[in-house]
Design a protein that fits this description.
With 131 residues, the chain is mainly α. The protein has five helices and no strands.
Length: 131
């Protein structure tokens, strides 16, 4: 049987499945690999969280433009998408405060040396992103 689902919908489904696979991998990963996974997902420029935030912001802009041009989206939809994007952005900013910790923990330990605990991130250190 041929799949008649539009390509962007298939892509969204595939991304969701890959996120599930990554979550399963994360739950079974050794600590060093888990830190690398989380660091990549939470990267403020290229990580999945930043990209998903951009996707929701794009959806909000699209829904607003459609509504303004007589499309089917009520104002509540684009406002909710915008709020979700803003909330995720804020979550990303909060997590950015720990970027140094992730970087430090993701470095492989020297052979034969005991693991070193990461220093807590400074709460007053400015991050690359701002609120």
């Amino acid at each position: 049987m041929t799949d008649t689902t539009p390509s962007p919908v298939r892509l969204a489904g595939e991304i969701a499945r890959q996120i599930d696979q990554l979550a399963a991998r994360l739950s079974q990963a050794p600590p060093h690999e888990a830190v690398q996974i989380l660091s990549a997902v939470l990267d403020s420029d290229d990580g999945a969280l930043a990209r998903f935030t951009t996707l929701l912001a794009t959806g909000s802009h699209y829904a607003r433009e459609q509504r303004d041009n007589g499309g089917p989206f009520p104002a509540e939809v684009w406002l909710a998408l915008g709020r979700a994007a803003n909330e995720l952005h804020d979550v990303g900013l909060d997590l950015d405060e720990h970027a140094d910790t992730f970087r430090q923990l993701s470095r492989p330990p020297a052979p034969g040396s005991p693991p070193v605990a990461a220093k807590p991130s400074s709460p007053n250190k400015p991050s690359g992103r701002s609120r």
